[in-house]
Amino acid sequence: GTQAMKTGAPRRGASTSCLALARTPPGCPRISFVDRWYRCAQPPANSCQASGLIEGVAEQLLFFATVQPGSLKKPRRSCGGRESTRPEQELFFYAYQRGEMERYGLIAGNGRFPFLVLEAARRQGIEMVVAAIKEETFPEINEKASEIHWMSVGELNKLIDTFHRAGVSKAIMAGQVKHHQIFGAAAKPDEGMLRLLNRLAQKNTDSLIGAIAAVLDEAGITLMDSTQFLTPLLAPAGLLTRRPPNPEEMANIEYGRAVARDIARLDLGQTLVVRDKAVVAIEAMEGTDATILRGASLCSGGPITIIKVSKPGQDMRFDVPVIGLTTVQTMLVAHATALAIDAGKTLLFDREELIALANQTDITIIACDEKRP
User: Fold this and answer.
1) CB-hemisphere CA count at 13 Å for 141?
2) What pLDDT was estimated at residue 177?
């Protein structure tokens, strides 16, 4: 069936054999593959539902196999011989005709970010070719990706060649790649990366990743907004937990956000730890959780406030602020009682669990808009 889909030539006898194997038992409704894909239905709960799903998948694959390249007419009958007017088949047909079954590249760092992008893209019918970073990407991604290529953080030429061979013209960066990896002993930059590093006047995050984005663009690969499949996960403005900040915490937030914006403008870090309107710790290359713990170690267990901001004019293609369940768990260890983030520019992973734990432990979380100090 795969070769027939590539060439457009139907395989004779395919519909009889495949559908015979995938026929739904009497009394069990057939479940459309696209129905499940686009409507995000739950996995089959029993053998009857599973059989319906299998037949739906088989029929949709056979539908692809009968599409003739260059034909301007959509097929009027399904592969099983029944009249077909289902809108999802028309959607697949016209997308196939126009070459709009897109393949994106995914440059995967650590954490859950790349996994969430993979899942969201799959629900929209977009295939992801994953470039996994050996020093960062979680190995579990092997089980989630349909096509994956492992490479070192310094192998820029290999990244471009991989995407070219896969026919990728759009890519997304998702997941943290720690800045210090570039300077580590494990990093062995190839010729392309060395050339890029040598021409950079500064090697801060914006300069480095911005230069990588420019090289990709020159190679015909456009780096896209990293949140484009995850916009529902961006923090809405306002109080996210039951408890609002008390006056002391609010004073820390207002002071800390003013300082944090200047720090972010210099591209030094996104996170500040504040106590009694004094900055205790500023994030460098170690990451948010390590910064929180470092700040706590300087405060002898007293309550602290955490500020996490985006950069002025945040480039949403990379280095987008993220908080998750582990952020709140780290705050508990550090005796942090308040967290302020930027609304519309911060991704919330594990949102329900995160908010539930914060409410349970009396932590306050507020998402501030740009008008708020």
Assistant:
1) 30
2) 81
According to DSSP, the residues that pair with 108 across neighbouring strands are 132, 174
- Going by C-alpha positions, the residue among 275, 299, 287, 297 that lies closest to residue 324 is 287
Least confident of 38-42, 98-102, 163-167, 271-275: 38-42
- Integer Cα distance of 82 and 78 in angstroms: 5
Q: CA quadruple 312, 314, 318, 320: dihedral positive or negative?
A: positive
DSSP code, position 26: T
The Cα 334–Cα 341 span in angstroms is 18
What is the structure's pLDDT at 7? 35
CA distance 343 to 363: 18
Task: Tell me the Cα Rg of the chain.
Answer: 25
Which helix (H) or strand (E) covers residue 106, if one does?
strand 103-108
Bridge partners (DSSP) of residue 130 are: 106, 148
CA-CA distance, 267 to 283, in Å (whole number)? 10
Residue carrying structure tokens 């393949």: 103
What is the Cα–Cα distance from 50 to 128, expressed in whole angstroms? 26
∠ CA(272), CA(277), CA(278), 5° rounding?
60
201 compared with 367, residue with greater pLDDT = 367
Mean of all residue pLDDT scores within the chain: 78
Q: Of residues 206 and 291, which shows the higher confidence score? A: 291
pLDDT recorded at residue 254: 96
CA angle 250, 253, 257 (to 5 degrees): 150
Q: How far is the C-alpha of 134 from the C-alpha of 55, rounded, in Å?
A: 39
Q: How many residues in the chain? A: 373
CB 102 within 8 A of CB 127: yes
